[in-house]
Amino acid sequence: MQEIKLCEISVKVDDSLLIGKGILKRTPVYHGKLTKTGQHVAVKKMFSGIFDYKKALDLKALKHPNIIRCFAVEEKGDFLYLALELCDKTLVDSIEKGDFLNKVVPSRQDCLLQVTEAVEYLHNKRVCHGDIKPANILVTFADGAGIRRFVLADINISKKEPDKTFSSKNRVIGDIGWLPKESYQPYLEVDPSWDIFSLGCVFYYVLVNMKHPFGDANNLEECQKNIQCGKVAVLKAEDFVKFSNLKSLISSMVDHSPDKRPCIGKVHEIIMRVFT
Fold first, then answer.
1. Per-residue pLDDT at 172
2. Architecture of domain 87-275
3. What are the tens digits of pLDDT across the range 83-98?
4. Taking a C-beta distance cutoff of 8 angstroms, is the pair 11, 4 a contact?
5. Domain residue limits, the chain
6. CATH classification of 2-84 is 3.30.200.20, yes or no?
7. Which residues are catalytic, by number?
8. Residue 170 scores a pLDDT above 70
């Protein structure tokens, strides 16, 4: 076992202590501590060729209750170490364990609102997430008042051009099953509509208990093939008995044409109207 002590982070690097893996399954996440306070954190060890120091600092600068907190960033050799907010589980785990039904976590409506507000915050900061999917939505531990939050993780900081455009020529590498059709185009300029598509798929997944609008959620490769061949999303009316207003919203969010997808502000406006 190797113990790495940096200025702000202390972490024991051992595969038996892994608590997760991040981007491309090549970024191990270990249980660690902040040196000064002793606070327990998740420490992500990243090869600097995948995620450079400037991007890590951009991530640290993001402060929103539904964005995973980055407390410290340190560089050693060819690696970056990110001290992140320690969370309890993923959205996938939470649904599988029946947490919504048992009221262990906030409601499905709260989940969609919180994640939408996180994406709206990113887009207002001229940042694209680039890999929104259920596995990248985490559930925090309960705070002193017993409240949990949903937070967006694995933000790739596909980022904020200084001119009037809002895109990035650094292609985002997301996970199959949740990516829009245009994600497979070479030299793609990523923009917020990419996030909207992925978010629409997540909305459906949360509302109808782990279903996917483009196929079997247990076969994401098939879902991505259906997206790539332009198959129309299957949104059944019976899945929207409680929230019929959201059927048309989600349908527009997962439209194959980026120009037909609503902006995040419009999405937020609609779900606020439906859920409050």
1. 46
2. Orthogonal Bundle (1.10)
3. 999 999 999 999 999 9
4. yes
5. 2-84, 87-275
6. yes
7. 131
8. no
